[in-house]
């Protein structure tokens, strides 16, 4: 995440980084961002589109390791099994039966 923030800070202008920080990092909606930065709605969304285009290109072309695609960059190793992926393949029939037995009970809401 630090790579993501540092690259964004390095390549965006002051105003673009403020929009990026308020909207993407702090999670403010467009109304709050427009009020805080004294922008109208059109200018705010146009700046968002410019930020997305610029950072998308930079993250994809970053050397020596690209930060793109972001979903793969930020995922953890606790993913669900993918079909055809040898890392998640079941080694034996016994392991397959053991996995089927380890299901959590469904809890009903009161």
3D shape: elongated
User: Hey, roughly how much beta strand do the residues contain?
Assistant: under 5%
Q: What characterizes the major β-sheet?
A: none
CATH architecture classification name of the domain at 2-73: Orthogonal Bundle
Rg value: 22 Å
Strand segment tally:
0
Helix content: 55-70%
| Integer average pLDDT | 78
- Structural class, from helix and strand content? mainly alpha
**Number of helical regions:** 6
Order of helices and strands: HHHHHH
- Find the CATH topology of the domain at 2-73: Arc Repressor Mutant, subunit A
Distance between the termini: 40 Å
CATH class of the domain at 2-73: Mainly Alpha
Instruction: Detail the poorly predicted runs.
Output: none
List keywords for this structure.
mainly alpha, Arc Repressor Mutant, subunit A
In short:
The chain is mostly helical and 110 residues long.
What does this entry look like structurally?
This protein is mainly alpha-helical. The protein has a domain at 2-73: Arc Repressor Mutant, subunit A, CATH 1.10.10. The chain has helices spanning 2-11, 14-25, 30-37, 41-61, 70-73, 93-101. α1 crosses α4 and α2 (14-25) crosses α4. It starts with a helix and ends in a 9-residue tail after the last helix. The mean pLDDT is 78.
